[in-house]
Amino acid sequence: MVFTPGLFLLAGLGRASSLERISVASIAANALALSFTLLACLWMGATLVGARWTPLAISVVMVALGGASCVVWGRRLRSFRLDRARRDWHALLPGLSLLLVLLIGIALRLWVARDLAYPAWVDSPHHDVIVRLLALHGRVPDTYEPVLPVGPFTYHFGFHVAALVYHWLTGLPSSDAMLILGQVLNGLMPLAVYAFVVQISERRWTAVGAAAIVGLVSLFPAYYVSWGRTTQLAGLLILVPLLGHLAQSRPMRPGQRSEAWSWGRILLVGALAAGVLYTHYRVVVFGAMFGLALALVDRKVDWRLWLPAAGVALLLTAPWLLRLVEAWVAPNLVDPSAYLAPAGYNSFPWHYFNSTLERAWWGMAALGAVIGVFRRERAILVIVVWVALTSALLNIPGAGSWVVNNNSWAISAFLPGSVAAGYGLEQIGRLSLWLWRSAPQAPARPGRRTRQMIGLAVAVALAAIVIAGLGFGIQAQSRTLNPRTVLALPADREAMPWLRDNLPADALIVVNSWYWQHDIWSASDGGIWIWTETGRHTTTPPVDYYYDPVWTQAINDWNARWAKIEDFGSPEAIALLREVGATHVYLGAVPGRMTPAALAAAPEIYELLYDRDGVFIYQIEP
Question: Which residue of 17, 321, 419, 576 is most buried, as measured by CB atoms within 10 A?
């Protein structure tokens, strides 16, 4: 699912976009990005023509694309011949190293998530709402109805379409489809980073170092599993190949022909830009800053590629952009302050980088950046300027915005950081080889042995750094999941069918809740999944309720008053229950403010219906 649709598109664009000459890793990374883009465009296309996708229809399309990809690429592989340079095992080492990183990284991602009953944290039920909406409508909906009484629908949906297709193809529950697909994509991020580094610098060992850091060492993106931050992950997977193509599009001298602006390349770059917009808005900002950094470093851009590609992207996303303008831009033109972030929202999360391992590899990134700037290495110059521009944009005094903030940049900074760190590792390796090879050949010459010993010491130090980094990194990756963000346990999942079968469709269930952030309340235990898993309503809906101002006020006001209740049998508690028409109470396996002991103190109000493995369900007596 994640490769064959994109491979089919690449087969059509290959000769026109000079893709035959890029590496296998780059082909795979572009295919992955194009697959997500194609699925998003298929859903948007159905919306425009008034059609709807069904499991059968998408299955037929996916099988057809898969078969066509196998036929086209099978023919190309039969005609493929390895030349002498490719037969050299030294030339195969970077690719084999990348393959090993991918296998270990994906295995670690799946291992970390092996015991999760549902994807972690508050974002995950919110994403499940969108997957279910797309499934119910078969196209991009206008509102959140019938799942939530909210409208209009303006959330980026690229990852959600892919998760829905995976859900339809496999028959897995949508929550499982999101979790497994998200973890596999997380493990594939090193592939995209490797391809990007090769495109921007043509340094394959730098690319291996960057891929190893992203897949086996860095806290991010592995930690995304603790938040369910799969949409930003998918956006970055599409963005990275796009940045690679932009970096390759150097402006040519007058009279010199450039293959970079062929129509195939234009369509490819335009499609990837559209895919980024459909998948994550904040990532669009990061891409724009990279383009500006390229322009500043190269002092000009290849407008023969950039302008037509922008036109393709606008053509593919115009209906969606119009909806966004109507919902978010036009109403706020008279009051631009509406885009400002709440207090504290734009604070930089320095605590993400407190571990010794994080500081160590970021130290290597700093070393690589210094060396690259000193040597005027184009790739490093672009990376450094990109980081500087993005950081400056996000920290203009008094202008922090909820559209994009320092937190979203901090958890994406592994991309430029890994490139610089990989370059630093390669430069240390080259220094070792230079010291060894530049030693005078005559044994009697003074200093020969000393220089060789220094080179050997540098090589040993580099090997120790790499081995220690990978060893500690793999250990850290296996413990990436933060248990504090796990809101639902297996006992909660087992209770969901009982809820669905035994509670009336119009039940309203009181759940444990807490003030999450910025005027949003969230359920604090497995009750967070009741709305999507059973269709029963709760006193704290998925966080998408925030998009309706009137409903937001009602939900927040009731939860704030309920949070002050200490005696759940008191007249105040009874009045609040009557106010919303509550019929049941759900206490999840993760302990919350309401406890079985507290409800047992008022047996005349709360009748116990379900008690299993730490999950309790009560009926509220009339």
Answer: 419
pTM over 0.85, yes/no: yes
For the record, the structure tokens of 562 come out as: 């309920």
273 touches 287 (CB < 8 A): yes
* CA 577 to chain CA mean position, Å: 39
Specify the amino acid at residue 382. V
- Residue spans of the domains in the chain: they are 4-74+95-231+338-415, 487-620
Tell me the C-alpha distance between 132 and 137, whole Å.
9
pLDDT in tens, 392-418: 999 987 767 888 999 999 999 999 999
Q: What is the DSSP string of 424-439?
A: HHHHHHHHHHHHHHTS
| Tokens read off for 9 | 């598109």
511: left (phi over 0), alpha (psi -120 to 50) or beta: beta
The pLDDT tens digits of the residues spanning 294-303 come to 999 999 888 8
Give me the residues paired with residue 607 across strands: 619
CB atoms within 10 A of CB 491: 16
Calpha distance 546→228 (Å, rounded): 18
User: CA-CA distance, 516 to 319, in Å (whole number)?
Assistant: 33
Tell me, rounded to whole angstroms, the distance of Cα 315 from its chain centroid: 25
- The Cα 66–Cα 4 span in angstroms is 5
Query: Of 103-107, 208-212, 329-333, 346-350, which range is least confident?
Result: 329-333
What is the distance between the terminal CA atoms of the chain, rounded to a whole angstrom?
51
Nearest to 542 by CA among 248, 217, 130: 130
What CA–CA distances, in Å, run from 369 to 203, 289, 339, 373?
15, 18, 34, 6
* Exposure of 311 in the CB half-sphere (CA atoms within 13 A): 7
CA–CA dist 215, 103 (Å, integer): 10
Q: Which of 125, 151, 136 is nearest to 546 (CA)?
A: 151
Q: What gap in Å lies between CA 67 and CA 364, rounded to an integer?
A: 45
Distance CA 320, CA 596 (A): 48
Our CA angle for 192, 93, 465, nearest 5°, is 80
Query: Given a cut of 80, is residue 145 above it in pLDDT?
Result: yes
Neighbours of 501 (CB within 10 A): 8
Q: Which two tokens stand for residue 437?
A: 């090879």
d(CA 145, CA 137): 10
Q: Lay out the sheet containing 537-538: strands in order across.
A: 537-538, 508-511, 584-587, 615-620, 606-612
Whole-number Å distance between alpha carbons of 569 and 558 = 17
Please tell me the distance from the alpha carbon of residue 440 to that of residue 606, in angstroms, as a whole number.
88
Are 55 and 168 contacting, i.e. CB atoms less than 8 angstroms apart?
yes
Between CA 12 and CA 70 the distance in angstroms is 13
Find out whether 114 and 188 touch, Cβ atoms under 8 Å.
Answer: no
